[in-house]
Structures are given as C-alpha cells and as structure tokens.
Amino acid sequence: MMNHQHPHRFQCRCGQVTGEVADTHSALHAVCYCRDCQAYAHHLGQADAVLDALAGTEVVGTHARHVSFTGGTDQLACVSLTGKGLLRWYARCCHTPLANTGRDWRMPYAGLVHSCLRTPGGEALGPPAFGPVQMHLETAGAKGGTPPRLGVWKQAKALLGFMPRIAASRLTGSYRRTPFFDGAGVPVAAVQVLSPAEHARAIAAVEATA
Fold it and tell me: pLDDT digit string (tens) for 1-29?
C-alpha cells in the first residue's frame, strides 16, 4: 500500500515566514548541545525559546529538497558565526531560527530548528510527524545535567540510515533542488558573518549560563 504523508508546516513566530517539509518519515530527529548552537540562540536573543533545560537545540534534519517556503521569503536572513561555519537561516522579522545548512549546496543537509515547527505556545504545526529524538550531539556541552543515554547502536543506525541519502545527492544532482541556494549555488540571502565583538558576546553569554 502506498504511504501518503501530509507535509509538515513550519513558520516563524510572528507568522510572516511560512513553509512546508514534504518528507517527514526520512528525517533525522536530534538534539545538539554544542557551544555554537547555544551561541547562535543567544545572538538572536532567542535562548529561552530555543534551548532546552540542558542548553540543547532540538533539530529535525532532512534533505533540502524536501523544504519549501510558501511565504515571507523577503524576511529570510542568514548568519554564520565564523567565516567557515554553518549557514544559520532565520526570520529577520522576529528572529526565529529556521534552519542550519552547510556552505556547500552539494551537501544538502537542512536542520530545521524546532522553534519553527511549533506555535509560540509549543503546539506542533500539524501532527507529530517526526517521531522521537534519535540522536544527541556534542553532549559535553550540556549544562546543568547529563542528557539521557540513547545508546550507541541506536544513534549509529539513525545516522547510517540518513547520511547516505544526503551524500547520494551529489550523484543524482538532487542537491540543486533547494530553497536556500540559487541555481549557481549562491545563498539566496546575503550571509552575515559575526564580527569578532559579536562572536565574543555570544560566547560570553553561553559561558555565563549555568
């Protein structure tokens, strides 16, 4: 029997930027505790909305071709913590984090930040389509406790099931179907790299938290 799934909606907190994730069953559901994800949340002034009790950021990873914007692309903005860091996409209108991508469009991973997949009240924008958390990343960066153990095999299985599909896009050319880059592989929004002072402030905010 053919499996029909409905797209999962996402939007920024003020509702100007909207979009959909077409394929939810193949997504990778993870929580990242790295210092950079924490610094990013602090830089946008969204730490309380984005970081969990252990300073983790919940992310749903998918192929960029499954992501589409349905409105508000004029409010799409992009920042990078350093000149070689991830591209971190957010809504300029209300500073809602939307997704993280690599700098090279030929590796079309898109990590959707949970804050755009739920309403401001915490309700999912659609059915709970992505399943339970499958991976914990950079757990040494957790604050105030230790994340629950998920098991090495469980996490390896999730990663091995996900990454080959992303890597294969180099052969199939499907990496070209992305809302984050134009047809020449240039980001659709100008990339703002944090100044040394901005970066230092964001890191200081991370270090100041318990």
Answer: 344 567 888 999 999 999 999 987 788 99
